[in-house]
Design goal:
Chain B: This is General transcription and DNA repair factor IIH subunit TFB5. The structure holds 2 protein chains of 2 kinds. In chain A, strand 16, helix 19 and strand 17 form a beta-alpha-beta unit. By secondary structure, chain A is of the alpha/beta class. Chain B is of the alpha+beta class. Chain B is globular, with a radius of gyration of 14 Å. Classes of the chains: A alpha/beta, B alpha+beta. The interface between A and B is medium-sized, with 24 and 21 residues.
Chain lengths: 829, 71
Amino acid sequence: MSDQPDENNDLLNNNTDTTAQEPNNTQPEEGSSKKKRKRDRSGEEKDKKKKKRDKDRTGDKKKKKSSSKSDMSDSLKRIATDAVKDIFNQNKEKQFDYVNLILKADHAMRPIWVTPDKHIFLETFSPIYAQAYDFLVAIAEPLSRPENIHEYVLTDYSLYAAVSIGLSTEQIVKVLEKLSKVELEKSVETYIRDATGNYGKVKLILQKNEFFVESQSIKVLEQLMNDSEIKGAVKVPDPVQNSNVDPSGRFLVRMQSTTDTDSYRLAQEVKALTVAAEKNASNVQDGDDEDEENGDGQEDKIKMYSFGIVAEKVGKIKERCIKLDLPVLEEYDFRNDKNTKLDIDLRPTTTIRSYQERSLSKMFGNARARSGIIVLPCGAGKTLTGITAASTIKRSTLVLCINAVSVEQWKNQFKLWTNVDESRIVCFTSTVKEKLPLTGASIIITTYNMISHNRKRSIEGQRIMQQISEREWGMMLLDEVHVVPAETFRRVIEVVKAHCKLGLTATLLREDNLTDDLYFLIGPKLYEANWLDLQKKGHLATVHCVEVWCPMTPEFYREYLTTNHNKRQLLYVMNPNKFRACEYLLKYHEARGDKIIVFADNIFALEEYARELKRAFIFGDTSQAERIEIFKKFRTTTQINTIFISKVGDTAIDLPEATVILQISSHFGSRRQEAQRLGRILRPKGQGKGQNSAYFYSLVSLDTAEMFFSSRRQQFLINQGYAFRVLANIDEQIRNDKDIIVESFKGKAQELTMLAKIKAADDTKGVLEKVKQDPDEVVSQKSRSNGALTLGGLSGGESGLMYQEYGNASRAKKGASTSKHPLFKNRNK
Amino acid sequence: MVNAIRGVLLECDPAVKQFILHLNKENTGSHSGFVIMDLDETHLFVDESIVEYLQEKLDDLHEKSYQFKKT
């Protein structure tokens, strides 16, 4: 780099040479700096950084103009200019040109930028960061929240959520305007008004086991009733039964008061915010304060009109309403619900953390319960949040989990945190079917599979299902709610009638983009925690994410280039350099006394690694007893410090003692999997070696497809604020480190034997393990890579979750025979 | 008499060298392979006319591995 200025001076002819050099100079420098560092605003132009890892940055507009296509044959220049051209060509719709945004005079005092494409950027180092953050989290969807600058986007759903907690259009627009460094674009303002204008107009109510659609204006109801799809589901009110039918005979009338305590509180918060913003801004406008005052505290009686709808069509109606731009608001007035109360209270020793309380306050805003989704990172106490919500509502609760292990865990948590009578908690899985108490409210914990099962059931199961579908549930808790949009699990929502639905998850991500469906299936996203924040407060362990680059050995790489798709995966996973790196890291961390989990999706690799390194391993076929034994030794003794786990370990296995995770092979670009694996080590480990840090290593083979997938997977974690460091020269470190001797693959001969083994191995070995419940719904490599449909997929077999009920029952078959009378042997196979 | 062949010395890491040899094999149709001599693990002696083509191919490889597809 230092040579270049001299060169510039020597080149007397072309001026364009020197300016064309600039993109060159800046881009490699930027590439070497931290991956997601956002640059500071310079004057009126803005550099927006998108999710690209290396050299793709938007340059200054002036620079772009001057990077002309000179007659240089310098290929480096070519690469640079091509890259810049690519960005601008790809995102033609997206205007990166913000020269037209009008900067306010006191922009230095304000914390946010609002761009015409509805993105909002927040500076975390601003003095009013905290309040601005609260506000933005309430009205916009967070995209990326690293250390210094956050990025949010305004979407329909985020505004919907804002309205459902009580913010009004005026408030939103005013505060956004106040906080923004640039003048609010007209397009953005109209968008907000349009989006919020329609929300809250229509409500869905469940009363006496019947659903009603309610609204303040008859016109809106008429519009809904006349819609072709909703027409069929409407139930005409019977004037004899109901005394409060309106004159036209179509609607029921109800009087309602409008004390909205939650929106009052929020209005106060917002007012405080505007006052603070005004103090920082040089212009003080008195008129605004009065506007805020008038909005709240009115006590009025208004007429609410409603019509009944058929229960089974509720989901369709909600979907239809969203399409008509009139999303339904669902609120459950649990305090006045006549249903039987459940005697449940949190134990006095139970403490709720601040973020759990915030998330619940979003849910229980105005003395009513809203349905929705709460997103908290793994290990942050989602279960406790759900239990607290259930204890607040104090009605019958249905809890849905993904597998039998979770069911047990939830039951234990209920017993641990609350004083509910144990006989009131009922587990319902394929192996365990406890009896429901005859009278009174109860808590049923079961799995998604059990409810959405549409094959034949046992008599016991049938009876319990009947009781579930007949009852009116106060609350339905959905654990790991990101699996719900799958076709097989949607039915759950239709089968069960619940007043309030709360979805809990750590990762609201799916690779098939069905997450939007969750919003009308369950409700808006009420709260999403900030991982970095929680880490700072000590609720989550500090994680150091490292990506270790392992070059491919020449023979392996040769084979990789020439072989077919399946084998390729095997080759880059079994890369001997990766093996060595893995062994080195294992020995290094074991010496420090850490507990290590190694994840490997590919069974062939898992077995090879574990056997070669002589460590314990667990995969789908490992027996339950062996798993329990290994876990026990891992937790309590130093006999086992490392476990190799396949996909089964991705969810629901609780290993809080692990401090290091190594990832040697993974499931393509699944961000969810990456996040959940990280969740294994997020629990804070205050005791122990006095450090609260954890390590997450991702081993990738250079120059292979693995690099591509790895950058995609890390995207989610980077957006949460974790920076991935790259360890590029681990072989140097291995050579230099005298204490640890790496033994595997010492000579070429061993490498070649491994290569031969791989070549001889069955093609299917290259495929990943198929776990029964594949939350990502990506079952086969082929259908993902070509987008082609498999026959299984067309007939509903492979797309969607592979619903199979064989779980523990099939394992029992292998061992002792279940004693069944010959007459009933063929029942529910 | 000494016979001198003109060429370009290529230095790279072992993995990329394999890639180039792979390309070489594919190209035996047009030339008889552009690699004149395989020197050692990290060095190759190639025909000078092939440099431009190699550059392109390496760019493609780089893009395939590192480029981040827009979701």
